[in-house]
Protein 1
Amino acid sequence: EAGVAQSPRYKIIEKRQSVAFWCNPISGHATLYWYQQILGQGPKLLIQFQNNGVVDDSQLPKDRFSAERLKGVDSTLKIQPAKLEDSAVYLCASSLGLAGGRADTQYFGPGTRLTVL
Amino acid sequence: GDSVTQMEGPVTLSEEAFLTINCTYTATGYPSLFWYVQYPGEGLQLLLKATKADDKGSNKGFEATYRKETTSFHLEKGSVQVSDSAVYFCALRRLYAGGTSYGKLTFGQGTILTVHP
């Protein structure tokens, strides 16, 4: 079974530039998550999709971050304009969602390491 | 809000030593509990999980028991190996209000484990 795919793996940009990340979840997984992991910290949720609808985006800085999940499969996360504090690893995860019950497991992609100079 | 607290790190052990990484949580309702591991240069992987009180999750010689009375989920291994060197994250997840979706993972800050030969 293929895992969660993400691209690019690394990205270096200057502040005020824009950047986009792509995620392809595990086939059949209804729920997709984007997390931000700052060095030395645990991941923190930015946005959660159930199929192509948003379930939770309460921690997403909506003035600069946006995300979409077209057709309930692939997703893109965009930052425009980037700030120095956006330097982090951006992780995409997917899970079955309610169909998985209480043991529903989130599977993570390898992440995109973003450096903002 | 929900929170997870892990023991301060980093932890350095000799091969075959006993490992304990403490994890306590605060959450409303009845969460599921997880340990994730991040090996150097790799993404987050599920290590083990427990979905109800007194459940014991186990995998690769690691164990953790869901203790509702002490709100804890401590990770243990009887004899660590050099290959266990990684960052370990404790996390919880619960249903969103209304039961329409399982929510985000709330992570602890991570504990770096280094095992020497």
Protein 2
Amino acid sequence: SQQGEEDPQALSIQEGENATMNCSYKTSINNLQWYRQNSGRGLVHLILIRSNEREKHSGRLRVTLDTSKKSSSLLITASRAADTASYFCATALYGNNRLAFGKGNQVVVIP
Amino acid sequence: DTEVTQTPKHLVMGMTNKKSLKCEQHMGHRAMYWYKQKAKKPPELMFVYSYEKLSINESVPSRFSPECPNSSLLNLHLHALQPEDSALYLCASSQGTFSGNTIYFGEGSWLTVV
């Protein structure tokens, strides 16, 4: 079953701007992960945030997790054309690595 | 760059054909996965192997038959597929199957059933 559900947004932004996308889920989770997928390619793991963490950074990426609201956000700062991709959140329940992916957000960064 | 290698990248097969998708990883991971992804949809889990044993089958039709010959290899045997089975098939691996292990994906195999 699908847990992570991003807001169904297609973002189109100018290079240098920030991009924010959201993800909501329904049940208690062990962790939440964000993946990037370029058109027709495999998924690239971006960042994992555990249920006891509230914020995590990796380079130009900032992820927040609000377990009380069952939501997460991914912020990409100073976007580049190479950031053009689909971004998926995925949740993992306690005890197994059965990832449930959200619908995905399409981000287009215009040079 | 992914360290999970999938072959072939593209496969076209008829509904009566038998073909296989192959996946290989050399990261020493003990869990391997098959996901199916339709266009503009999120990936959906098909199978999970843990220590070379099938641990999860997400009610996948028997025309898809997974095989894990050793800890580095994962195959997906295809037989009597339907056109609606056309999709991107993604292999993945992780250190183990407990949550919190990062899952690494391959580039996928594009399957077209005609």
